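[audit] Reproducing an earlier prediction to check determinism. Same input, same settings, fresh worker. If the tokens differ from the archived copy the diff job will pick it up downstream; this log only records the rerun itself.
[audit] input (832 residues):
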Amino acid sequence: MTSQLPTQVEIPAVRLNPIAHGIRRHYQSQRPNLLATAVIAGSVAFAPAVSSAQAALEEIVVTATKRSVNMQDVPISLQALDSTKLTELGIQNFNDYALQLPSVSFRSSGPGLNTIYMRGVSDGGDGNPSGASPSVGLYLDEQPVTSIASNLDVHIYDIARIEALAGPQGTLFGASAQSGVLRIITNQPSTEGFEGRFDIGGMSTDGGDSSSSFEGMVNIPLGDKAALRVAGWYIDEGGYIDNVAGTRTYDLTGPYGGTVAVGRTGTIDNTAFTSDDPRANAQPIAEDINTLEKTGLRALLKVDLSDAWTLTGGIFFQNMQTEGVWDHDPESLDAGGEPIGDFKIQRYYQDENEDEFTQFSLTVEGDIGDAVHLTYAGSLLDRQNDYVNDYTEYGQVAGHVPYYSCDYSATGTAPGPFDDATDCTNLDEFVYEDHTMTRQTHELRISSLGDGAFSYTAGLFFNEFENDFSLNYIQPHMAPDATVISPDYDGTNLYFITAQVRTDSQEAIFGEFTYAFNDQWSAMVGGRYYSTEHEMVGEVTFGPAGWIVRPPTIDDQLSGNSNQKGSESDFLSKINLNWHATDDVMLYVTRAEGYRPGGVNRDPLLIPKGFGTFEQDFLTNYEIGFKTTSKDGRLRFNGAAYYSNWEDVQYTIYEFSLSACCGSTYNLGDARIKGFELDLTYAASDNWTWYGSLAKTDAETSEEFILDPDGIGESLIPEGQPLPNVPQIKLNVTGRYDFTAGGHNAYAQLNYSYVSSTTNRIVPTDPLFADQDDYENFNFRAGVLIGTWNVDLFVNNLTDEMAELAANPRVYGTSTVINRPRSIGLKVGKSF
């Protein structure tokens, strides 16, 4: 049968020329010249004319509206990277494709540890599993897989397309589609014939270790009514961050150290450091410590139940293991008092992360008569994320660290004198997280068939997300009577724990209804009525409760238990008017709403202050856009301008003077965002093709943010403060030149990206507030197709630019997450 929703979409193989020969600039001595960049982008419009025989661009069919529609007829700002373009750009992971999407920005702590933003909707306080939900929805086929600060970093291989839907998509996609949605659509099985391929790649990195990749897929028809598609991969990425020798000296006085500790210090040396705890290994002094191994398998079985109905079941497994960190701290000092330099850091415990997920999916769809197409989509995701994170430097800013490591008198009063027999020099610590996420999703929807004036998509939706996590802060040399007693952990050398099961569920009924007045004018109205529930059960516990100096009891420490519930229901709306001025020109205006659900705070001491829960926040967006095709179908040029009002912004803050404990979420005030997006594709000749995209974003608070849980009325953020993690300019230009070499098809391509400067936090007086410099990136690729074999040479980060992807949010360090240095590689593949 022919499915109403296509399983594989071929977006045009539009190609851009390598513009390297026309660009001569000195990157080591200056930042990007935006005027020169604008000239490059503008040259697209003045490329040489093509012959009348030049083929038009192929139609792009997307399912962004949960219907199969030509992208040029979808009245939203939408960019799609199809399987051809994903291959041409060498995209393998989240960082790769996020760089190519103008409306997307992110904050990163390493692979799979990203917080995603679109169109500037960022408060900078999200990222804690107890806090606010993300503002961007991430989908894997039909299922939302959105996670807080740990996006599902799916390996990009045998993927049909990635769709970036900018602006609120609340009516169709619900919670966390507040500022946009990213959708990863996998290739589906086909009964049309057998096909397969494999790819083997290798890469060397300047100053780092080598990398390799092994990928393959096969599509097997099982008769005329069924087909199986299987894809698998193994990725081994070498590191480029070095762990170097260093020492740390701590003042043991601290706010809890007592006057007798004045003048006492403790020192730790990572050259002689060994781990005395079986739960964490010592990080050796070594080069290239940040490594990644990623293994995955995806299998989909499609069965035609009849001429009208199809069933597709699938399983998707991926395991990603990393060691080390992806940030450096060049200002740290070596033993001689000199800065250690770029691509270097000083760590004590070995940072390790294992991120494994399995997704089961089932889709049943078919036509009911000639008028209605029905789809059921159900998915179950199980994800386990365990990590160990070195936290040794925390003792430099947290006075309670030496307090727990040194013995004290059990007087039952304020901190007593230190016991000189206790070794107070070992202030090392690490954090261990045990994190399990499960999500089930069910959607039943109907869509109209035919070409009548009235069309619709409507459905029922249910989603439940359980987030079971335990964060354990461990000091292997802490005083024995300072250990936390916890039912969620064995308690050995544990001074703080937050262990919770957070459950968020959503039920909704939704629909979008379109009426075409004539061939040119149509209007759409949409809505979503939803009901959400949140529950958090667990504990938040310091060792001897409340820092009272006496041997702890189980009753003391379980006083931090959290058992709270919340719920809400509301209605979102969307209205759109679009005008097809000609067959090739569409103009539209839209008003749309999106939201993040509310939740409960993990600290029960906030309940009597009226802050036990936080409310949902809303984004209302006003947008005008255009979509055009010209030059006999060889030029596609789309754009949109928008204004968004963000109300009751949720913000998670970690400040002991403003909350009872350990980070809580509050609704602070309003912000506003305005900007525009442009996207262009031009098949300039039989050989040259150009891509270009640009986003300009202006995001700031529209009123003063005040936090007042303790009745002090403290102003945190002034009116007009720029929102963090939001580059004002994001630009991509790609040129591709196709030619014949020795009778074989060949190409050369250059991709350029620019991201302007940002800040890492919204509170300008925060001591951890930092600027993140602008950066640019060039990727070069060239290759040849010889029969069914392809050989591709690539150079990523051609100019060896060091990009500041994120100022690390940890409170004890100033390190910055950086990109991979210049890397040269070769990839060989074969289709069969």
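[audit] rerun output stored. Observation attached for the diff report: The mean pLDDT is 84.
[audit] end
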